[in-house]
Design a protein that fits this description.
2 copies of one chain form a homodimer. In chain A, the strands form 2 sheets. Chain A has a 3-stranded antiparallel β-sheet. The first copy, chain A, is elongated and about 45 Å long. Among the domains of chain A are: about 35 residues, no CATH class; about 40 residues, Zinc/RING finger domain, C3HC4 (zinc finger) (Herpes Virus-1). In chain A, a hairpin with a 2-residue loop joins strand 1 and strand 2. The two termini of chain A are about 30 Å apart. Helices cover about 30% and strands about 15% of the residues of chain A. By secondary structure, chain A is α+β, with helices and mostly antiparallel strands. Chain A has 3 helices and 5 strands. At the A-B interface, helix 1, strand 5 and helix 3 of A face helix 1, strand 5 and helix 3 of B. The structure holds zinc ion (4 copies).
Chain lengths: ~120, ~120
Protein backbone atom coordinates (compact mmCIF):
# COMPACT_ATOMS: atom_id res chain seq x y z
CA UNK A 1 0.00 0.00 0.00
CA UNK A 2 1.34 3.41 -0.86
CA UNK A 3 0.72 6.69 0.91
CA UNK A 4 0.20 10.07 -0.61
CA UNK A 5 -0.56 13.56 0.55
CA UNK A 6 -2.55 16.50 -0.76
CA UNK A 7 -0.41 19.62 -0.93
CA UNK A 8 -1.14 23.19 -1.95
CA UNK A 9 1.30 24.00 -4.74
CA UNK A 10 1.27 27.62 -5.97
CA UNK A 11 -2.48 27.84 -5.69
CA UNK A 12 -3.45 24.38 -6.94
CA UNK A 13 -3.92 21.20 -4.94
CA UNK A 14 -1.59 18.39 -5.97
CA UNK A 15 -1.46 14.81 -4.82
CA UNK A 16 2.10 14.04 -3.84
CA UNK A 17 2.95 10.37 -4.05
CA UNK A 18 5.03 9.29 -1.09
CA UNK A 19 5.98 5.73 -2.01
CA UNK A 20 5.91 4.40 1.57
CA UNK A 21 4.13 1.26 2.77
CA UNK A 22 1.53 1.92 5.49
CA UNK A 23 3.63 0.46 8.30
CA UNK A 24 6.37 2.96 7.50
CA UNK A 25 4.03 5.95 7.67
CA UNK A 26 6.14 7.31 10.54
CA UNK A 27 8.90 8.00 7.99
CA UNK A 28 6.59 10.33 6.07
CA UNK A 29 7.86 13.51 7.75
CA UNK A 30 11.49 12.66 7.01
CA UNK A 31 10.51 11.82 3.42
CA UNK A 32 8.77 15.19 3.01
CA UNK A 33 11.71 17.11 4.46
CA UNK A 34 14.14 15.50 2.02
CA UNK A 35 12.15 16.55 -1.08
CA UNK A 36 12.73 19.66 -3.18
CA UNK A 37 9.88 22.23 -2.91
CA UNK A 38 10.20 22.90 -6.67
CA UNK A 39 10.24 19.41 -8.27
CA UNK A 40 8.97 17.33 -5.27
CA UNK A 41 11.58 14.67 -5.96
CA UNK A 42 14.33 13.92 -3.45
CA UNK A 43 16.85 16.76 -3.23
CA UNK A 44 19.57 16.35 -5.85
CA UNK A 45 22.75 18.34 -5.10
CA UNK A 46 21.08 20.34 -2.32
CA UNK A 47 21.66 24.08 -2.22
CA UNK A 48 20.65 26.25 0.75
CA UNK A 49 19.62 29.89 0.44
CA UNK A 50 20.49 32.60 2.99
CA UNK A 51 16.93 32.19 4.32
CA UNK A 52 17.68 28.49 5.06
CA UNK A 53 15.52 26.94 2.33
CA UNK A 54 16.79 23.99 0.31
CA UNK A 55 16.39 23.05 -3.35
CA UNK A 56 18.04 20.89 -6.00
CA UNK A 57 20.90 22.82 -7.53
CA UNK A 58 19.33 22.78 -11.02
CA UNK A 59 15.82 23.64 -9.78
CA UNK A 60 16.87 26.75 -7.84
CA UNK A 61 19.30 28.00 -10.50
CA UNK A 62 16.60 27.74 -13.15
CA UNK A 63 14.15 29.56 -10.85
CA UNK A 64 16.63 32.34 -10.03
CA UNK A 65 17.25 32.98 -13.71
CA UNK A 66 13.64 34.30 -13.81
CA UNK A 67 13.20 35.85 -10.35
CA UNK A 68 15.78 36.76 -7.68
CA UNK A 69 13.55 35.49 -4.87
CA UNK A 70 13.39 32.37 -2.69
CA UNK A 71 10.49 30.26 -4.08
CA UNK A 72 9.43 29.33 -0.52
CA UNK A 73 9.55 32.61 1.43
CA UNK A 74 10.13 35.31 -1.23
CA UNK A 75 13.32 36.62 0.41
CA UNK A 76 15.72 38.33 -2.00
CA UNK A 77 18.10 35.61 -3.20
CA UNK A 78 20.98 35.53 -5.67
CA UNK A 79 22.85 32.56 -7.12
CA UNK A 80 25.98 33.78 -5.30
CA UNK A 81 24.20 33.35 -1.94
CA UNK A 82 23.58 29.62 -2.52
CA UNK A 83 25.58 27.26 -0.34
CA UNK A 84 25.94 23.49 -0.82
CA UNK A 85 24.04 21.61 1.88
CA UNK A 86 25.94 18.34 1.41
CA UNK A 87 24.59 16.63 4.51
CA UNK A 88 21.16 16.53 2.83
CA UNK A 89 22.59 14.59 -0.13
CA UNK A 90 24.03 12.07 2.35
CA UNK A 91 20.73 11.95 4.24
CA UNK A 92 18.79 11.27 1.03
CA UNK A 93 21.08 8.32 0.26
CA UNK A 94 20.91 6.93 3.81
CA UNK A 95 17.15 7.43 3.99
CA UNK A 96 16.50 5.60 0.73
CA UNK A 97 18.69 2.69 1.87
CA UNK A 98 17.02 2.52 5.30
CA UNK A 99 13.54 2.67 3.82
CA UNK A 100 14.32 -0.17 1.45
CA UNK A 101 15.76 -2.20 4.32
CA UNK A 102 12.76 -1.63 6.57
CA UNK A 103 10.30 -2.48 3.77
CA UNK A 104 12.25 -5.65 3.03
CA UNK A 105 12.30 -6.60 6.74
CA UNK A 106 8.52 -6.15 6.80
CA UNK A 107 7.89 -8.31 3.75
CA UNK A 108 10.43 -10.94 4.80
CA UNK A 109 9.12 -11.41 8.36
CA UNK A 110 7.02 -14.57 8.73
CA UNK A 111 3.25 -14.00 8.88
CA UNK A 112 1.51 -14.48 12.23
CA UNK A 113 0.26 -18.08 12.25
CA UNK A 114 -3.51 -18.43 12.79
CA UNK A 115 -4.60 -20.13 16.03
CA UNK A 116 -5.42 -23.80 15.36
CA UNK B 1 20.09 -4.33 22.47
CA UNK B 2 21.86 -1.08 21.74
CA UNK B 3 24.40 -0.30 19.05
CA UNK B 4 27.52 1.76 19.36
CA UNK B 5 30.44 2.74 17.22
CA UNK B 6 34.11 3.42 17.79
CA UNK B 7 35.11 6.82 16.43
CA UNK B 8 38.44 8.64 16.27
CA UNK B 9 37.93 11.93 18.06
CA UNK B 10 40.86 14.34 17.86
CA UNK B 11 43.40 11.59 18.35
CA UNK B 12 41.55 9.44 20.90
CA UNK B 13 39.14 6.60 20.27
CA UNK B 14 35.69 7.16 21.74
CA UNK B 15 32.75 4.77 21.94
CA UNK B 16 29.71 6.55 20.61
CA UNK B 17 26.45 5.17 21.96
CA UNK B 18 23.82 5.02 19.26
CA UNK B 19 20.73 4.02 21.22
CA UNK B 20 19.20 1.91 18.45
CA UNK B 21 17.81 -1.61 18.78
CA UNK B 22 19.50 -4.16 16.50
CA UNK B 23 16.56 -4.43 14.10
CA UNK B 24 16.81 -0.69 13.44
CA UNK B 25 20.53 -0.85 12.59
CA UNK B 26 19.71 0.44 9.09
CA UNK B 27 18.90 3.80 10.70
CA UNK B 28 22.47 4.08 12.03
CA UNK B 29 23.74 6.19 9.12
CA UNK B 30 20.91 8.70 9.48
CA UNK B 31 21.53 8.78 13.23
CA UNK B 32 25.24 9.51 12.70
CA UNK B 33 24.55 12.26 10.17
CA UNK B 34 22.19 14.05 12.58
CA UNK B 35 24.78 14.26 15.38
CA UNK B 36 27.11 17.19 16.12
CA UNK B 37 30.80 16.35 15.45
CA UNK B 38 31.76 18.31 18.59
CA UNK B 39 29.38 16.99 21.29
CA UNK B 40 28.11 13.80 19.52
CA UNK B 41 24.57 14.53 20.65
CA UNK B 42 21.83 15.28 18.13
CA UNK B 43 22.31 18.67 16.47
CA UNK B 44 20.71 21.39 18.56
CA UNK B 45 20.06 24.63 16.62
CA UNK B 46 22.13 23.49 13.64
CA UNK B 47 24.55 25.97 12.11
CA UNK B 48 26.31 25.36 8.79
CA UNK B 49 29.76 26.72 7.95
CA UNK B 50 30.80 27.97 4.47
CA UNK B 51 32.53 24.60 4.01
CA UNK B 52 29.15 22.83 4.52
CA UNK B 53 29.85 21.34 7.97
CA UNK B 54 27.17 21.37 10.66
CA UNK B 55 27.35 21.86 14.43
CA UNK B 56 25.13 22.85 17.33
CA UNK B 57 25.01 26.62 17.57
CA UNK B 58 26.57 26.66 21.05
CA UNK B 59 29.26 24.06 20.21
CA UNK B 60 30.57 25.88 17.12
CA UNK B 61 30.42 29.35 18.71
CA UNK B 62 32.40 28.13 21.70
CA UNK B 63 34.94 26.50 19.37
CA UNK B 64 35.30 29.62 17.18
CA UNK B 65 36.02 31.76 20.23
CA UNK B 66 39.31 29.80 20.47
CA UNK B 67 40.18 29.10 16.81
CA UNK B 68 38.76 30.58 13.59
CA UNK B 69 38.74 27.18 11.86
CA UNK B 70 36.14 24.56 11.00
CA UNK B 71 36.64 21.71 13.53
CA UNK B 72 36.01 19.13 10.78
CA UNK B 73 38.08 20.34 7.80
CA UNK B 74 40.17 23.24 9.18
CA UNK B 75 38.84 25.78 6.65
CA UNK B 76 39.02 29.38 7.83
CA UNK B 77 35.65 30.09 9.50
CA UNK B 78 34.18 33.09 11.29
CA UNK B 79 31.02 33.36 13.35
CA UNK B 80 29.59 35.71 10.70
CA UNK B 81 29.83 32.94 8.09
CA UNK B 82 27.54 30.61 10.05
CA UNK B 83 24.11 29.99 8.56
CA UNK B 84 21.14 28.35 10.29
CA UNK B 85 20.47 24.90 8.82
CA UNK B 86 16.90 24.66 10.08
CA UNK B 87 15.94 21.60 8.07
CA UNK B 88 18.33 19.59 10.25
CA UNK B 89 16.49 20.64 13.41
CA UNK B 90 13.25 19.42 11.80
CA UNK B 91 14.94 16.20 10.66
CA UNK B 92 16.23 15.53 14.20
CA UNK B 93 12.68 15.87 15.56
CA UNK B 94 11.13 13.70 12.84
CA UNK B 95 13.88 11.11 13.14
CA UNK B 96 13.49 10.77 16.91
CA UNK B 97 9.71 10.39 16.53
CA UNK B 98 10.06 7.81 13.72
CA UNK B 99 12.66 5.82 15.64
CA UNK B 100 10.43 5.68 18.70
CA UNK B 101 7.49 4.60 16.54
CA UNK B 102 9.46 1.86 14.80
CA UNK B 103 10.87 0.56 18.12
CA UNK B 104 7.38 0.53 19.58
CA UNK B 105 6.00 -1.32 16.55
CA UNK B 106 8.76 -3.90 17.01
CA UNK B 107 8.09 -4.45 20.70
CA UNK B 108 4.31 -4.41 20.26
CA UNK B 109 4.23 -6.97 17.42
CA UNK B 110 3.23 -10.43 18.66
CA UNK B 111 6.13 -12.90 19.03
CA UNK B 112 6.33 -15.75 16.54
CA UNK B 113 4.63 -18.70 18.23
CA UNK B 114 6.85 -21.79 18.64
CA UNK B 115 5.84 -24.84 16.66
CA UNK B 116 3.92 -27.29 18.91
ZN1 LIG C 1 14.25 19.93 -7.36
ZN1 LIG D 1 13.45 31.23 1.70
ZN1 LIG E 1 27.05 19.97 19.61
ZN1 LIG F 1 34.49 22.38 7.40
Amino acid sequence: MALGQLMLVRGSVKYVYLDLPANLACLKNIDNLLRCPICFDYLNISMMTKCSHNFCSLCIRKFLSYKLLCPVCNSATAELDLRNNRILDDLVKSFQAARQNLSKATFDSPPISPKT
